[in-house]
Write a structure and sequence with these properties.
single chain; mainly beta; six-stranded mixed β-barrel; four-stranded antiparallel β-sheet; 2 helices; 12 strands
Length: 203
């Protein structure tokens, strides 16, 4: 973000709740750092197959269909797994009872607000936000694990300014930058992912 008085180019136009986290294999304890989007419009939790590979989780074959805005899903093969999601420091943990793999997550890392993005806003500049953006977003946490979305604290500025939520995993800055309202946008992200449950694939 940047205010109208700041001359530096804005990098984040609309900040989403993208959090740095740690993901653990519940059987072996092997873990890796990752970034997840908290998505209140989805009823399923998804991850990239590469995330499971990093921590040695094989997963169980399953068949599902995912409906997204404007398109009804077709049955497809996926993997189902259980993971442990935690804050980077390991202080707070949340078991992810069922995570399904998907070949892609259309979530741009540019949607994560860094410390530099909010330095123009006095009410946000001292929050412990990330210093850098990741190369990719590996995990989407849906409302099937709604505990992750519980807001513990909120920091607000004036009307129209970005704000921040403290979740059980960490802080995240959210909302639109001044540039977003001043310039027409041509590309948008709308998730609302709904799972249609299908029978497990037979071996």
């Amino acid at each position: 973000f940047a205010s109208a008085a700041v001359q530096n180019p804005m990098t984040t136009k609309v900040a989403l709740p993208i959090l740095p986290v740690r993901v653990e294999n519940p059987d072996t304890g092997e873990s890796t750092t990752a970034h997840c989007l908290l998505d209140t419009g989805s009823n399923v939790t998804l991850c990239l197959p590469s995330l499971l590979e990093k921590i040695g989780v094989a997963g169980t074959p399953a068949k599902i269909a995912l409906d997204v805005v404007g398109r009804e899903g077709r049955p497809c093969q996926t993997l189902s797994a259980s993971l442990i999601l935690s804050s980077v420091d390991g202080m707070n943990q949340l078991p992810l009872r069922r995570v399904l793999t998907t070949d892609s997550l259309p979530i741009h890392p540019q949607s994560l607000a860094t410390r530099a993005d909010v330095e123009a806003y006095e009410h946000l500049r001292d929050l412990p936000l990330p210093d850098e953006r990741p190369e990719s977003i590996d995990l989407l946490v849906g409302m099937d694990h709604g505990e992750a979305m519980v807001v513990l604290e909120t920091v607000r500025g004036s009307v129209g300014e970005p704000y921040a939520h403290l979740y059980m995993l960490c802080w995240a800055a959210l909302g639109a930058s001044e540039e977003y309202h001043q310039q027409p946008q041509e590309k948008f992200i709308v998730n609302l992912i709904q799972e249609q449950q299908q029978p497990t694939l037979e071996s």
